[in-house]
Amino acid sequence: MANVTNIPTVLREGAGLVMHTGGCHCGAVRFEVWSSPDLHVFNCNCSICTKKQNLHFIIPKSQFKLLQGSENLTTYTFNTHTAKHTFCKTCGVQSFYIPRSNPDGYGIAPHCLDPGTVCSVKVEDFCGQNWEESMEKHQTIRSMSKNVAE
């Protein structure tokens, strides 16, 4: 897992990023992410996102830090095996994962963030049932896992 401290604080704060913390239901898995306080969340209708109600926002790997619980995580993959659906072995909650759309980043579940750092949430529907076509049409999703300085 990447270490968020690799990004200079001045770049994080200059880009309007705030540190959010969060974790799974039982508390075994804890993490921090640097992201905007105004979240751009995807509501995907692919088979797994539909079953899990997987709303998520995307960040670069460098803006994620696992604080505890690596030994409590397990991973599920299917189809292309690009997405890595990580979840807590104890409570079953997926707080974050590596999305197929952005294998160089993380999808973070906004409902797993601790209260107090989110100002607003904009939800965008994404048609994962027609994944390839949707990815071709979407103009910005791939850039969401790029560092601010890139």
From TrEMBL:
The keyword Zinc applies. Keywords: Metal-binding, Zinc. Residues 20-132 form the CENP-V/GFA domain. The keyword Hydrolase does not apply. Pfam families: GFA. It comes from the Eukaryota. InterPro entries: CENP-V-like, CENP-V/GFA, Mss4-like_sf. GO terms for molecular function: carbon-sulfur lyase activity; metal ion binding. SUPFAM superfamilies: Mss4-like. Belongs to the Gfa family. This is CENP-V/GFA domain-containing protein. The lineage of its organism: Eukaryota, Metazoa, Chordata, Craniata, Vertebrata.
